[in-house]
Design goal:
Strand content: 35-45%
Low-confidence stretches: 7-43, 387-402
CATH topology of the domain at 179-284: Thrombin, subunit H
Number of helices: 9
Strand order of the largest sheet: 9-10-11-14-13-12
Distance between the termini: 35 Å
CATH class of the domain at 179-284: Mainly Beta
Mean pLDDT: 81
Number of strands: 28
């Protein structure tokens, strides 16, 4: 699961009884030298260049003073129905609950004080600070502590939940600032370090390498994350990710964990995205993002086979918002978006990140794949604050089999009105490959391989000609989604 990194200050330290594991972390790497044997039959290996570790102390000394600790206080509403410290399955639970009910109305809520910590960094000498939006969410009071131990009450100038960026201001002058870099120059495998306050331990420095760029996470479709193996933990949220040139290239935001703690996979928001949002917040108090008005899903191998794509890349359009920017541009359900303004769309998560970084009203040129041919479409983007574009995903769960496994019939006029569709076939029963792919009785089959479903005979013909798989566009409970079904 993906976990945000801010947390209360409370720290529980588990001591290992077996002892402490030492020397964990980055060591000095040098190229291997093959020693030449005195025997003439063994040739000496070519000596490679010496690989040295970066001097993290110099970077920390220069950039560290601009990293701050952020303390947040607020309140959380809690129900008074529960009995603190008592298991609901305890036989006495209901007795005490009824007794409490005699003392006041049921369902009553009370406000409980909360406290959390995070990190941030100064980007302007007059007190502008960047951090994560989730660090200061619902905060009633925000306190910023500098490395020289001075503390300031901070004002939240604005925050953007879509990118998880917030901007603060403190009343101070001549403050140290960080140098900002660009993710465009960042390379996978490059050394980076994080400075922050994990578990409240201020000015903690950890280092690692860039594991990947352009990662899309399910809940953060507007951000092409930087993945690293830098150790980050609760409290590191909002702190800088710095390259070996001393430039901030990202904002540490999330970790992927099964235990609740760091497990070697962390994510940072690219500084290019963050600065763009920061500039909007400083100027207007809020950030705006563009939207295309489509729902998309992943193109897997089954879809690639169905649509005759050379490789499983792109964003498959499963629904087009009526009257939205994509609809006005002529984009259709079943189109596969391959590029936006020349930028490749490899996975479906790339599309919202590319579109979301544009300004509303911008015109973009999209390369799409439609009916086995490449086309270009120009769209004028709308505003994401008006309506949020959704992203649907679908895994290939089809199975082998020579038939589709569907019992179909035409929709009755009343059924068409209820489903709000002009055509399609009702799926009365699903079995075989279709059932294994997730198709259910009651779904409405709208299209197969991008062609509108008009008759049972037509579906048989398409399936008979298909090689490995077919792509079914179905509607279920008002939602449309493509389902790949393997038949070969």
């Amino acid at each position: 699961m993906n976990t945000r990194l801010s947390s209360p200050r409370t720290l529980v330290i588990a001591m290992a009884a077996a002892g402490v594991i030492g020397a964990v972390g980055a060591g000095a790497y040098t190229s291997a030298h093959a020693l030449a044997s005195p025997a003439p039959a063994v040739a000496a290996a070519t000596t490679g260049p010496l690989v040295t570790m970066p001097d993290f102390s110099t970077i920390t000394e220069r950039e560290g003073p601009a990293v701050v600790n952020i303390t947040v206080t607020g309140t959380m509403k809690t129900s008074m129905e529960g009995i603190p410290g008592m298991d609901p399955d305890d036989p006495m639970f209901q007795f005490f609950r009824q007794f409490r009910g005699q003392m006041g109305p049921r369902g009553q809520q009370r406000e409980t004080p909360t406290r959390g910590e995070g990190s941030g960094f100064i980007v302007s000498p007059d007190g502008i600070i960047m951090t994560n939006a989730h660090v200061v969410k619902d905060a009633k009071e925000v306190t910023v502590k500098l490395t020289d131990r001075r503390e300031f009450r901070a004002k939240v100038l604005g925050s953007d939940a879509k990118t998880d960026i917030a901007v603060l201001r403190i009343d101070a002058r001549n403050l140290p600032t960080v140098a900002l870099g660009s993710v465009k120059n960042l390379k996978v495998g490059e050394w980076v370090l994080a400075i922050g306050s994990p578990f409240g331990f201020e000015n903690t420095v950890t280092a690692g390498v860039v594991s990947a760029k352009g990662r899309s996470l399910p809940d953060d479709s507007y951000v092409p994350f930087i993945q690293t193996d830098v150790a980050v933990n609760p409290g590191n949220s909002g702190g800088p990710l710095i390259n070996t040139r001393g430039e901030v290239v990202g904002i540490n935001s999330q970790i992927y964990t099964r235990s609740g703690g760091y497990q070697g996979v962390s994510f940072a928001i690219p500084i290019d995205v963050a600065v763009q949002v920061k500039d909007q917040i400083v100027a207007t108090g809020k950030a705006s993002h563009a939207r295309l008005g489509v729902a998309v899903q992943e193109v897997n191998q089954a879809f690639a086979d169905s649509f005759k794509l050379d490789k499983p890349e792109g964003a498959l359009v499963s629904n087009v918002e009526k009257g939205g920017p994509a609809d006005q541009a002529g984009l259709r359900t079943g189109d596969v978006i391959r590029k936006v303004d020349g930028q490749p769309i490899v996975s479906s998560g790339d599309l919202p990140a590319v579109i979301g970084q544009q300004k509303p009203g911008t015109k973009v040129t999209m390369e799409i794949w439609r009916q086995g041919a490449r086309q270009e479409i120009t769209a004028k983007l709308g505003n994401a604050n008006d309506k949020t574009t959704t992203v649907a995903s679908n895994d290939d769960s089809g199975g082998p089999g020579g038939k589709l496994g569907l019992a179909l019939r035409p929709l009755q006029p009343q059924e068409k009105r209820e489903a709000q569709v002009d055509g399609g076939l009702l799926i009365e029963d699903a079995g075989g490959p279709a059932a294994r792919a997730g198709v259910q009785a009651g779904d409405v089959l709208l299209a197969i391989n991008g062609t509108p479903a008009k008759s049972v005979e037509q579906i048989r013909e398409v399936v008979a000609k298909a090689d490995k798989s077919v792509a079914l566009l179905i509607q279920r409970d008002g939602d449309k989604i493509f389902v790949p079904v393997r038949i070969g």
